[in-house]
Amino acid sequence: LTGIQEKLDHIVYLNIKTIWITPFYKSPLKDLGYGAEDFYDIDPMFGSMSDFESLLAAIHDRGLKVIMDLIPNHTSDKHRWFQLSRNRTGKYTDYYIWQNCSQTAGSVTPPNNWVSIFGDSGWQFDAVRQQCYFHQFGKEEPDLNFHNLAVQQEIHDIIKFWLGKGIDGFSFSAVKFLLEATHLRDEPQVNKSQNPETITAYSQLYHDYTTTQVGMHDIIRSFRQTMNQFSSEPGRYRFMGSDGEEKEDIEATMMYYGTTFTQEADFPFNLNLINMKNLSGNSVFEAVNLWMKNMPAGKWPNWAVGNPSAARISSRVGKEYVNVMNMLLLTLPGTPVTYYGEEIGMENIASENVSEVHINSNPVI
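Above: the chain sequence. Below: its structure as tokens.
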């Protein structure tokens, strides 16, 4: 956090207006900090709460704004809520998605065929509770049960805490995973002739029951309503972004903008320019046109050519494209989103130290 503060003059020089910082919550850092152990504390690797408050003041002193990442879908298995839930303590008993699962000869048979994004079953047996919990990401990141209104209230309280500190907005990540179907049916196989017992990869199933469920957008809109409580003063509007990227389904992505009458995200982050298979004039046109022709009337576009999950331009498509991609980013209508280092053509380096990669994952808008 102090490192970001040291670079603020550079950010001002670039005429950037908002800094977007990836997760720095207290975390075991199993998944680059995306599984929080404590949403109200800062991991010592990045500094202290006083470091954050100093950074926030310095950002605002320069007329800049800052937004934070918030991943409400899951926590770390080290989180206090999970420790209480696995022991069936009071209201925390149903904070996560628990199901009975059969165990024979040391082998666990999960409740259904749902798989984790990282591969293999999305169900993990917990010896303390003697049940399986569901995790859409790593087994160290149990999914919260958003059918439980108390869980939803916990997230609203976290939003209020950080907005109360003075941050200018949130980017909500992994929101399409917030709800799962309660009927627990097997998800359909992509290849119907495949032996069901051999399914281990996320791409081998259609995720009809674990993503974008009915009611998911209502939860995101409720986050927006809480943020609006902090947006009433002139000049204190709180920005809300979401990673509502639905890959092949542009109409589903556009739903994160909300409707004419119901406000949701200011914009879902647009990764079309990052996801292009081959860089060409035609592919750029198609990526831009896809967003602009589908965007709801009166809404605002955005563009990104880099993020923490993608190689930088120079490493992804070549050094010779750095200037032209940055020019494209800055001349398209809407908000440009860049990843730190792209402005100087920084290249990716291989690192075996995951923590080191995470320290550097602070994109700026």
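Confidence is low (pLDDT under 50) at residues 354-364.
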